[in-house]
């Protein structure tokens, strides 16, 4: 009987520790939400940077530099970037917009 009481007390203590780690101030759930927000913000910043780069490419191409044939090639590459910009991931800091 005493062993059963000790076992129940130990299990209650372990349950309390587990809940504290999961829901507490620096718990797993809060850290996961923070990570989700950071990823979302990084994704938005990256998409803005890609759109900024695409705009710069448009400005360069519209300035008339290069032969007509080369401009067509560059534009087709640029359209590929614009089409797939949501799937591109990069941690390179040179693509981030300066504050």
Please give a structural write-up.
The structure is a single chain. By secondary structure, this protein is mostly helical. It is 74% helix and 0% strand. The chain contains three helices and no strands. It has helices at residues 2-23, 28-62, 68-83. Helix 2 (28-62) runs antiparallel to helix 3. The radius of gyration is 27 Å and the shape is rod-shaped. The chain starts with a helix and ends in a 16-residue tail after the last helix. The model has no long low-confidence stretch (mean pLDDT 77).
Helix-strand layout with pairing:
Elements: H1 2-23, H2 28-62, H3 68-83
Output the keywords:
single chain, 99 residues, mainly alpha, 74% helix, rod-shaped
Radius of gyration, whole Å: 27 Å
User: Based on CA inertia axes, which overall geometry fits?
Assistant: rod-shaped
Structural class, from secondary structure content? mainly alpha
Spans of at least 5 consecutive residues whose pLDDT stays below 50 are none
Main beta-sheet annotation: none
Number of strands: 0
Q: For the terminal residues, how far apart are their CA atoms? A: 68 Å
Order of helices and strands: HHH
Arithmetic mean pLDDT: 77
Number of helical stretches of at least 4 residues: 3
Assembly context of the chains: single chain
Query: Helicity, in percent?
Result: over 70%
Summarize the structure.
By secondary structure, this protein is an all-alpha fold.
């Amino acid at each position: 009987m005493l062993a059963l009481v000790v076992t129940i007390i130990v299990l209650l203590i372990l349950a309390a520790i587990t809940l504290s780690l999961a829901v507490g101030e620096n718990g797993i759930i809060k850290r996961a939400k923070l990570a989700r927000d950071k990823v979302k913000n990084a994704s938005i910043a990256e998409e803005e940077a890609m759109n900024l780069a695409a705009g710069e490419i448009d400005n360069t191409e519209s300035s008339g530099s290069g032969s007509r044939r080369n401009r067509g090639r560059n534009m087709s590459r640029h359209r590929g970037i614009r089409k797939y910009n949501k799937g591109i991931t990069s941690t390179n800091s040179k693509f981030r917009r300066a504050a």
